[in-house]
């Protein structure tokens, strides 16, 4: 008899834990509705930010088109099968984000950077690393920390010319035969292409890129 009563008690407790009351269901519905409203607001804010970034990107492209004469065409990192065209001394500038919640954007870029570094190691070519963005710094420092020459994190959006100038000043402190910009090229809101652009010094005064410019001597008293 006592065993039957204990079994009935356990069944009653199980049922009370399994089936929600009407008040609990109402609270859950209200909570889910509030979360949906917050999520919708976050989507609207993100869409507005994305539109602003796309407009700034479109406006910057004509302004930066002339740099193609220095960097050459952009190459996708996953299709860089070898580093035969890389010089002996290289600087890798990795441009990641400071925050997460953007899928595998930073992880994919870091993976491609590791593949490129492995090729440089195999070819016996030296390299230093400068990382923009806290995510890239965290993903690469443990393995390649001894190659780091600096980082730029907690950057204020949108990026400015002052930020670019400060980073360029830091990069000028070393002697490199080429600077490789490693970044995610925007293709769509859900697709980015890990890419590389290479900047090499203009040592040939007859280079076609210099035709539109006039170079003044270093001892010019007017400078």
Write a structural description.
α4 packs parallel to α5. Helix content is 47%, strand content 18%. It has a six-stranded mixed sheet, sandwiched between helices. The chain contains six helices and six strands. The protein is of the alpha/beta class and 223 residues long. The longest helix is centred in the N-terminal third of the chain and has 43 residues, at 22-64.
Summarize the SSE layout with pairings.
Blueprint: H1 2-18, H2 22-64, H3 68-71, E1 75-76, E2 89-95, H4 105-123, E3 126-132, H5 134-144, E4 148-152, H6 161-171, E5 178-188, E6 191-199
Parallel strand pairs: 2-3, 2-5, 3-4
Antiparallel strand pairs: 1-6, 5-6
Helix pairs in contact: 4-5
Summarize this, please?
With 223 residues, the chain is an alpha/beta fold. Helix content is 47%, strand content 18%.
Strand content: 15-25%
**Radius of gyration in whole Å, from Cα?**
27 Å
CA-based shape:
elongated
- Binned, the helix content reads 40-55%
Spatial sequence of strands, sheet with the most strands: 1-6-5-2-3-4
Determine the oligomeric state from the structure.
Answer: single chain
The helix tally amounts to 6
Largest sheet: 6 strands, mixed
Distance between the terminal alpha carbons, to the nearest Å? 106 Å
The overall pLDDT average reads 81
User: SSE string, helix = H, strand = E?
Assistant: HHHEEHEHEHEE
Structure summary, number of beta strands:
6
- The chain-level structural class is alpha/beta
Low-confidence stretches: none
